[in-house]
Structure formats: structure tokens, C-alpha cells
Amino acid sequence: MNRPASSPSSQEEAQLMEQLRQILLSEDREALAAIREILEDEAQLSEKVSPIIRQHLAFLKENFREEYGLIIEEIVSKKLSESQDEIVNMIFPKLNTIIKKFITAQFQILKEGIDSQIKTVQNRFSPKNIFNRFFGPSDSDIVLSQLDNPEIHEIYLVQRDSGLLLGSFAKEKNPDQDVIAGMLTAIKSFAEDAFNRGKEDLEMIQYENYKIFLHNLPSYYFAVAMTGSISASEKDNLSNKLITFAGENIPFDTTNVDSTLTDRISAALSTHFGHFNIQQ
Amino acid sequence: MLSKKVILTGSFGVGKTSLFERFINNKFEDKYLTTIGVKVGKKSVSTEKGDLSMMIWDIAGEVAQNKVPTSYFLGTSGIIYVFDVSRPSTYGNLAQDLEYLKSINKLTTIKIVGNKKDLATEAELNALVEELPLPIDLFTSAKTGENVEKLFLDFATEMVG
Question: Taking CB atoms and an 8 Å cutoff, what residues of chain B touch A218?
Fold first, then answer.
């Protein structure tokens, strides 16, 4: 089929389209060239973008907590819980140094306290003090006794082999005294067996400031629970008091343990140790 | 009221602590936790012959009794030797263990108890009685509580008398 005489040829059509593009896109092309120039030139790009970044940074600085606080907290919390061991390993040497410094400082304070108290002992060469130096308590005993007075809280009298309670005294009533007597005997037996010490006896159980002083006799033993520092002379006082008590109040035959016997011994313990001052 | 010391001994995992808990606290735990050292508990019981305060020592299990510290057995009025009816290794040393226990405490009464009765049939228990070299005093189940009270009450009656 022939093209009509009035319609343009395809070549003319293309030329017309190009002219139309030139007319319509010339402004866009100029704008595009200008943008490209800005993008390719660092100085120009910086001039345009920097104020926007600065503005956003200022916004973040002001609003960081509200915008990202919760997310960061969650991440940190998760990371901390996953890395507990690493954190402990990291902190421990530092902590150790701090504790050592603290203990050294406390020892220094204690030493200074003892030195100052020893200096205050007047008339060191008076007849009384000269007598005390040879036959009385030592300076360190006097100082220690003033620092931390010993106090008896509980006394148990326990059958040596069976661990059965023969009698007890407690400032605050403890309902499990029978079980405590049994467990103390088990601990004593275990320690004596484990270290294979033959006829030797366990004499003290201590944790922190709480001590259980064990005074062993052939068929039973006393367990005295106390706090404070006990000097050698106070320990002697206590031992003498326990031996005297045993001689006066405990029958020779304690093989059969019954409530009549335990009640009688408990009452006697209360009478003798209720107001006993270990320092006298 | 008289007080007496009673020991629960035997191999590990035979149910000594379960018998102890069942008798003292009337409790049973399916979970197995090995006993470390000794656990001491107390229960007062009334018998026809009088009341008794039982101090019960639950000792950590050992394959052979001569591994248990001898001092634990001193001053004991009664020993309960426990084995597991479902585990032959726990009663394999029965004769030697009993001989050893008698040698360290000649005056003590000893009871031989097969625990975990609920895991065996009547026929299996009868076969076990025939098989073992020494007479069994009682089969118990700490899980169901069967014969537990009876074990300790019978023992208490013997000790009071």
C-alpha cells in the first residue's frame, strides 16, 4: 500500500521527533549537567551536603536517647549477659588489686590502733605491771580483748561416738539442737578420719566471725558457739569452767541418753553459763 | 524418752535418702541427688514398749562398706543395710559387707532391707530371697511408702526393749 502524498517520510518523522526532544528536554538536560557537575566536584558537593549532615547530627545529639536508647540498651544488655565470664576475667585482676589495697590499708589502721593502745599502758614499770608482764595477760591479749569481746551464744554437750545430745544451752532457742549435735559429730568424725590424725581431735570450726570451740573429753565433748576474738587466757578460762562443770554435773555413765538426763544437764548449763563472763 | 543412733548404709543409689525422707518428712523425690558425707535427721516414735527419739544418719553410699569412715558407725544402736532389688551389683557384696559391719560394732542390731520393691514382681522377690546368702528382714518401697514406717517402728521397738 502507498503512503499518502501529504504524510512525512520516516526520516522526516525522526528529525521532527529530535527537534521536539530538543525543545522539551533542553532545560532538563541543563539541570542534569549542573547536578553532575556538583556530584563530580567534591568542594561543591560538600558545600551542598554538609549543612544537611550537620543538621542531622545536631538532631541526633539532642534526641539520641529517645530515638535509639532502648535498642542500644537491649544490645548492651544482651552482650553483657553473653559475655559474663569474659567481663569477670577482665575485671577480676583490677578488683583484686583494689581489695588488696583496701586490706593493706585496714591492717595499717589496725596496727596504728594497737600501737597507740600499747603506748597508753601507763606505768609499765610499776610493781603491778611488772607482775602482770610475767604472770598476767600479755599486751596483745589486753588489746585484742578490748577490740572484739568474745560472746558465747550456744553450748552443746554431745556424746562423743554417737553424736547424741546430752544437754544444751542457747541464748536464743534453737529447735534443731539434736540434729546440730549429730551433724557436728559427723563433721568432727569426717575431719579426724580424712586427715588420718590418729588420736588427735578437731578443736575449732570457724566461719567468718563465728567460731565453734570444741573441748574434747573421753566420752563426750562440748561445742561452744561464740563470736568475737578469744585470747589464749580466755580460752583457758573457758576450758577450766567446762571441766569444772563436767566434774560437778555430768554422771560417770552417760551410755543411755534419755530426756531426764538431757533436761537436767541443760538446766545446769543454763545456770552455769547464762551469765558467764569469759574474760574474768 | 530414750535417744538412739541409727545408720542407713549401703551402695549408692539404693534409696537410703529416699527412705530417710519418706520416714522423717513423708516425702519422695524421683530426682536422684547423691548424698555428700552424712545427713542427720531426727524422728520421735511411740512403741508399745515406750517412746524413742531416733537420730538417723543417712550416710553417702559406697560400693563396699569398708570405704565408709569407721567413726560414723561408733555409738550406733542400729544399722539398716539397704540394697536395690532391681540392681544385683548392690547386693553382690552382702555377705562381706555384713561381716565387716559386725566386726566394727559387735553389739549393734543390723537389718537387711531390699528397697525399690515397686520395681519387682512378687515372684522376683521370692527368687531373690532364695538367691541371697543371708535372710532379708524386709522389702520396702520409699516411692510408694510400703513397709517404710514398719521398718523403723519394728526397729524402734527392738531398741527400746
Answer: none
